[in-house]
Amino acid sequence: MAYNEGMLRDGALENRTIIVTGGGTGLGKSMAAYFLRLGANVVICSRKEDILEKTASELRQSTGGKIIYVPCDVRKTEQIENVIAKAVEAFGQVDGLVNNSAGNFISPTERLSYKAVDTVVDIVLRGTYYFTLALGKYWIENHIKGSVLNIVTTYATTGSGWVVPSAMAKAGVLTMTKSLAFEWGRHGIRLNAIAPGPFPTKGAWDRLFPEELAAKFAFENRIPLARTGEHQELANLAAYLISDFSAYMTGEVITLDGGEVLAGGQFNFLKEITDNQWDAIEEQIKSATRGGKSPE
Ligand SMILES: CCCCCCCCCCC/C=C/C(=O)SCCNC(=O)CCNC(=O)[C@H](O)C(C)(C)COP(=O)(O)OP(=O)(O)OC[C@H]1O[C@@H](n2cnc3c(N)ncnc32)[C@H](O)[C@@H]1OP(=O)(O)O
Ligand SMILES: NC(=O)C1=CN([C@@H]2O[C@H](COP(=O)(O)OP(=O)(O)OC[C@H]3O[C@@H](n4cnc5c(N)ncnc54)[C@H](OP(=O)(O)O)[C@@H]3O)[C@@H](O)[C@H]2O)C=CC1
Prior knowledge:
By secondary structure, the protein is of the alpha/beta class. It has a single domain, classed as Rossmann fold (3-Layer(aba) Sandwich), CATH 3.40.50.720. β4, α4 and β5 form a beta-alpha-beta unit. The longest helix is centred in the middle third of the chain and has 29 residues.
């Protein structure tokens, strides 16, 4: 299927250096792999050095691309500045940032401790604005037209129970995306976001939803396109948004969720009605119309 194939031409990201936070696992790893295939230099960072090292060496081998890793907790500004310094030392400059690192718990909110809420909000919101601010200062000072891609969620817009710290933080990231897109447009700096629906990853699946809970809810049934996302589909959109192919787009959030977020449509409950029932309903509506009844 085309959705498992790379979309941009070979070399589309040549001479670009892109930092991917949380690039050692899941969607971050898939985006990093595709950026490398398109010729970018990639810097992955997150807390766990052993995982970063393994991913960097795997991707170096599989893509032949230039990748380095730098351990970093995105809640720590000095560690973020170290990532940027190491990236500049290795590749000369930084052109793009994907804020992908996240933490999340599924839980009734009243069961969360203050620290649990802080943990998620600090990684998602604070981590994202720290990294964006550090790179923004560097870009403005060095007259570089950088590009930021923030990975949010569909519930950043709709809100959602049971993931409240994540929803609050992702909503903040979305507002930052739009606000800074306007403010930093004059520097040629662009910020965009992707709101993914369910994409199978170990981080989201195993840690967020224990198997017992997952078995109870068939996610595919909630999605109009009746499947979960393929990593390459997200990597294709990410590569487009981080590249100059999207040079006229800024402050935008693109939902990539097979239509899952549309479930709130007022008449969507009609999904349950069968073809036979529709035949009967149509006949009733037509006969009421033929009867010439006018509204009271
Ligand atoms: C087919 C069905 C599958 C459906 C799947 C659908 C998925 C849909 C996607 C929805 C949108 C997804 C958004 C995402 O963000 S997915 C990303 C998921 N990835 C992660 O969360 C990253 C992995 N997680 C971690 O690395 C860590 O868990 C985390 C960084 C978040 C926290 O680690 P840390 O070591 O910093 O934290 P502590 O363990 O010290 O805990 C801090 C406090 O938080 C409390 N805590 C921890 N876990 C929970 C929990 N599950 N529920 C409630 N509270 C929790 C912990 O007790 C600490 O607080 P206290 O000290 O006060 O006790
Ligand atoms: N998978 C899905 O269905 C969906 C995912 N998303 C978003 O996509 C992104 C990727 O998620 P996914 O790949 O599924 O999950 P993962 O758990 O694989 O990715 C999360 C990454 O964040 C890193 N991370 C966590 N805490 C920190 C920290 N303090 N500092 C630096 N890095 C940190 C982790 O690395 P380490 O532990 O080494 O620090 C890990 O690599 C997230 O932003 C998530 O919210 C949104 C909607 C749906």
